[in-house]
Amino acid sequence: MTQYASPNSDVLDGAWTNAGGGQGALNSNVRKGTGDGSYIISEVAMGFDPDLCKFGLQNPDDPNSDADHIVRYRAIAAGMFGPAPDLIIALYQGSSGVRSVTNGSVSTSALTDYSFTLTTAEAASIGDYDALQLWITRGAGNMGDSMKLSEAYFECPDPSAPAAAAPATVNPEAFLMFLD
């Protein structure tokens, strides 16, 4: 089975806006299952600098495995005067980066599903699943560029069942008896 950790708090909104066009409560627009009808938007109006937002994630249980740790997101971009901006998705544990991926080819025609899988070493570096955050950055762009996300979340396996206790090892001691 799989457990999912959707955004459940806004840590930093940057200039990203929610589906209603306002600030705040961005996390409710990108939770797993929000689909196409709800999204957050980052647009480049007059500024050309990157735009970062950060989300706290629901607290998954430690899966006791370093396999199948995946970040998934759904995005669409628009480039007004040239190519669309990059999208940088990063998984953090507190302020320490676990993995960051730059997507330089976000679709400009339809909301598209994307994902990346952590390496075993990256997954093993997670010591506190309660401190995971998802950082989303729209890269520098041109006036009129935009980036929209409708889902972003982390998934990992359910905790493994506890291993069966190993049978007690019987080490019979040699016993020699000499009788006279």
Describe the SSE topology:
Elements: E1 2-5, E2 7-12, E3 40-43, E4 51-57, E5 70-78, E6 87-93, E7 96-103, E8 112-117, H1 120-124, E9 132-138, E10 146-157
Antiparallel strand pairs: 1-10, 2-4, 3-10, 4-9, 5-8, 5-10, 6-7, 6-9
Provide an overview of this structure.
The structure is a single chain. By secondary structure, the protein is mainly beta. The protein is 3% helix and 39% strand. The protein contains 1 helix and 10 strands, in the order ββββββββαββ. The chain has one helix at 120-124; strands spanning 2-5, 7-12, 40-43, 51-57, 70-78, 87-93, 96-103, 112-117, 132-138, 146-157. Strands 1, 3, 5, 8 and 10 form a 5-stranded antiparallel beta sheet that branches. It has a 5-stranded antiparallel beta sheet with strand order 2-4-9-6-7, with no helix packed on it. Strand 6 and strand 7 form a beta hairpin. It is elongated, with a radius of gyration of 23 Å.
